[in-house]
Amino acid sequence: MQNYQLVLTEHLNHYGFLFGGTLLKWVDESAYICARLDYPGKSFVTVGMDKVSYKKRVELGTILRFNVDKIKTGTTSVTYKVTASVASAFKDDCSEIFSTMVTFVCIDENGNKRPLE
């Protein structure tokens, strides 16, 4: 699945670049959307993100592309790889700025783990 986000003024830190926390929010949201589409009617909570390492700074007006791929499915959990890159009109000109694994656990109405299927 692909998702896009436009970097606006309210997303910038005091140096004029994208806040790392805002990027993490978008990564989590992109993976969550994918989980909900893959498992309709199920509820999920984020239990972890793998390594967090920013490769490049992101400026105002940048369009970011988030690619989300399912990597692993357990009994109650699912893990997605999310890669964020600068979207470009030129296919060969999309530089990756961040990637991580996001793991969710499926929960019931009481917040207890439940099987995905």
Please tell me about this protein's structure.
The chain has 117 residues and is α+β, with helices and mostly antiparallel strands. The chain has a single domain, classed as Roll (Thiol Ester Dehydrase, Chain A). The chain has one helix spanning 20-38, and strands at residues 2-6, 43-49, 63-73, 77-86, 96-107. Strands 1-3-4-5-2 form a five-stranded antiparallel sheet, covered by helices on one side. A hairpin with a 3-residue loop joins strand 3 and strand 4. 21% of the residues are buried. The mean pLDDT is 94.
Attribute tags:
alpha+beta; Thiol Ester Dehydrase, Chain A; five-stranded antiparallel β-sheet; 5 strands; 16% helix; 38% strand; elongated
Decide which structural class fits the backbone: alpha+beta
Separation of termini?
A: 21 Å
Annotated CATH homologous superfamily: Hotdog Thioesterase
Overall pLDDT score: 94
Low-confidence stretches: none
Shape: elongated
- Percentage of residues assigned to helices: 10-25%
Strand order of the largest sheet: 1-3-4-5-2
The CATH architecture: Roll
Strand content: 35-45%
Radius of gyration, CA atoms, in whole angstroms: 15 Å
CATH class: Alpha Beta
Total strands: the figure is 5
Sheet having the most strands: 5 strands, antiparallel
CATH structural fold name: Thiol Ester Dehydrase, Chain A
